[in-house]
Amino acid sequence: MTTINDVARAAGVSPATVSRVLNGGRVTAERAERVRRAAAELGFAPNRVARSLRMRRSSLIGLIIPDIANPFFTALARGVEDAAQRTSFSVVLCNTDGNLDKERRYLDIAVAERMAGVIVAATSRSRTDVSALQSRGIPVVAVDRRPRGAGVDAVLVDNEDGSAAATAHLLARGYRRIACITGPQGASTAEERLAGYRRALRTFLDDGPGAPAGDVDRLREYTRHADFRAEGGYTAMAGLLALPQRPDAVFAANNLMAAGALQAMLEAGLEPPEIGVLSFGEVPWAPLVQPGLTTVRVPSYDLGRTAAGLLLDRITGTERPLRTVVLRTSLRVGRSTAGPV
């Protein structure tokens, strides 16, 4: 039976180097390639069960996200998996549906299975609790959303600046009664995107030639909290259209809610840019929408890939201070925000 020593001799490296490659440790790309080539030629398959028992930890990474049906999280998951597949780790996907009880069960499973590490998009900023993982030495990386008070690495999006830029764009195009459909109360992404929207309106009031609908307080009637899903966006938009003075633009704080808002508009006989529509996050079918949809582009794949890189560093024992990586957004302008008709 081929052993790790056989692979080391064939690759011209030490057994320790072979072990580092197989366990996702840091070695030069040239040495890693030699080890992988030698292992393939010799038909070497590491005994993962024995290795897990020695390490008292599996070779599994948990990825806990709210909604795999959301293209944002689909791309994020792909980024995590692509990074993990370059090592000996496999990814277990856990879909919480934004439910705290489901999230707790998945966190308990990660502890029971002695997972090598966990990447989590927290359901709640204040109520998601990863302390059971931390107390057992299981590394945790927060992605997109960070639980309050948790001392973990994090990879986040600059939600507030992205939302402020989106709202400023709508104001610059002449829209004044701008509605915001944001996510659930308590979700950090929803709060940050709402804060960016409000910040842009206040800046306009201070510096602009006129006040949108009078003042920011009056615009509170144009704010709706939904569930980050298409159904929530539809219901929120239907309520906004029923107002005595309906909005002339809507900023939807995620892509699925933008889809629901568009559906409600179309059923009411309205379409952009008569009411401007701007989505935080792109949707796969955006090129098919006429007029083209204006979106805040979010680097979702890079979020996942970066989070996996930070987690693998921790798993392989890299000692460093906690890191928070914040990725920037960009605005993709379409004709859905061409200006009020």
The CA-CA distance between the termini, in Å, is 75 Å
What is the residue-averaged pLDDT? 87
In the CATH scheme, the class of the largest domain would be Alpha Beta
Low-confidence stretches: none
Number of strands: 12
Query: SSE string, helix = H, strand = E?
Result: HHHHEHEHEHEEHEHEHEHEEHEE
The largest pleated sheet is described as: 6 strands, parallel
Would you identify the CATH H-level superfamily of the largest domain?
Answer: Response regulator
Topology of this structure?
Layout: H1 4-11, H2 15-22, H3 29-42, H4 48-55, E1 60-65, H5 71-85, E2 90-95, H6 100-112, E3 117-120, H7 131-135, E4 140-143, E5 153-157, H8 159-172, E6 178-182, H9 188-207, E7 223-225, H10 230-241, E8 249-252, H11 255-267, E9 276-280, E10 294-297, H12 300-315, E11 324-327, E12 330-332
Parallel strand pairs: 1-2, 1-3, 3-4, 4-5, 5-11, 6-7, 6-8, 8-9, 9-10
Antiparallel strand pairs: 10-12
What does this protein structure show overall?
With 341 residues, the chain is an alpha/beta fold. It is built from twelve helices and twelve strands. The strands form two sheets. Strands 2-1-3-4-5-11 form a six-stranded parallel sheet, sandwiched between helices. The protein has a six-stranded mixed sheet with strand order 7-6-8-9-10-12, with helices on both faces. Helix 1 crosses helix 3, helix 5 runs parallel beside helix 12 and helix 8 crosses helix 9 (188-207). The radius of gyration is 24 Å and the shape is elongated.
